[in-house]
TrEMBL record:
Matching InterPro entries: Cbl-bd_cap, Cobalamin-bd, Cobalamin-bd_sf, Corrinoid_p, Met_Synthase/Corrinoid, Meth_synthase_dom
GO biological process: homocysteine metabolic process; methanogenesis; tetrahydrofolate metabolic process
NCBIfam families (alphabetical): pyl_corrinoid
KW Repeat (keyword) present: yes
CDD domains: corrinoid_protein_B12-BD
Residues annotated as domain B12-binding: 94-216
Protein name: Trimethylamine corrinoid protein
B12-binding N-terminal domain: residues covered: 1-92
Family of this protein: Belongs to the methylamine corrinoid protein family.
Cellular component, GO, one term: cytosol
Pfam families: B12-binding (PF02310), B12-binding_2 (PF02607)
Statement: the UniProt record of this protein carries the keyword Chloroplast: no
């Protein structure tokens, strides 16, 4: 029987090889073998994606490689999502969470994983998509009255806009009605503290743990 570490390592390698078909096959094998699919996403697929990102930063890989790796990762997540959803079962809604990738930023893989995991955990999730205008977050708080409004930012140039969500919620007089959550690779607890965000989530599991605590 295949071990978790082995299948994670193979998934990581397949993302780094930009091999969608291999990623899909590995994910199907993982489902068959009943290994932990959350670990497969975080310690396998995401680890491969991060390695590609590091090599892109170092100049040893280029944008087409990043695109190909993200397609391979997305292919794997698509295979695993129904299993994750089935694991969630029919649970009573713990409340609403609105999430989106911030204005100017089209990175959506991490936000999509967070949205899926929150759904599985029993939250009703409203996904605003990517490149979401700050005013749209504010309007969504007015419309949906969520427990948490989450933003994702993958670039140092776009994470600064997370501050504007705080400011515009205050200007609209609704900051106290909702908890704000920030995440994305360059985002840290220090950044969340600096801008006054209520929740910093390092990854999807952390987002679920912290939103669960907020819902209690
Ligand atoms: Co892109 N990109 N990229 N990229 N990209 C990054 C982010 C760089 C860091 C790469 C680098 O230089 N090392 C860099 C940003 C540098 C900076 O900070 N300024 C960068 C750049 C520069 C760019 C372009 C500008 C490149 C160009 O066109 N010249 C361009 C951006 C255009 C734009 O947005 N306006 C671009 C484009 C792309 C794509 C399209 C090729 C592709 C995205 C595909 C897609 O998302 N549909 C892409 C990718 C894949 C990456 C890297 C390699 C991986 C991102 C990723 O998906 N990681 C990334 C390098 C990196 O981050 N290591 C690189 C995997 C996911 C699972 O992790 O961190 O997103 P995550 O999410 C976690 C976690 O953060 C947390 O939970 C998630 C799950 O565990 N989380 C939240 C995320 N959001 C949350 C929200 C919450 O409320 C709570 C928790």
């Amino acid at each position: 029987m295949v071990s978790q570490d082995e299948i994670n390592a193979r998934a990581k390698a397949a993302v780094m090889d930009f091999d969608d078909e291999a990623v899909e096959e590995i994910c199907e094998e993982a489902i068959e073998a009943k290994v932990d699919v959350v670990s497969l996403i975080q310690d396998g697929l995401t680890a491969g994606m991060n390695e590609v990102g590091d090599q892109f930063e170092q100049g040893t890989l280029f944008l087409p490689h990043v695109i190909a790796a993200s397609e391979a990762m997305s292919a794997g997540v698509a295979v695993l999502t129904p299993v994750l959803e089935a694991q969630g079962g029919a649970v009573k809604s713990k409340g609403k969470i609105v999430i989106g990738t911030i204005e100017g930023d089209i990175h959506s893989i991490g936000k999509d994983i967070v949205a899926t995991m929150l759904k599985i955990a029993g939250f009703q999730v409203v996904d605003l998509g990517r490149d979401v205008a700050i005013a749209t977050y504010v309007d969504a708080v007015k419309e949906h009255k969520p427990l948490v409004i989450g933003s994702s930012a993958l670039m140092t140039t776009t994470m600064v806009l997370q501050m504007q969500i705080e400011e515009q919620l205050k200007e609209a007089g609704i900051r106290d009605t909702v908890l704000t959550m920030v995440g994305g690779a360059p985002v840290t607890q220090d950044w969340a503290d600096k801008i006054g965000s209520d929740i910093y989530a390092e990854n999807a599991t952390d987002a679920v743990v912290k939103c669960n605590a907020a819902a209690e």
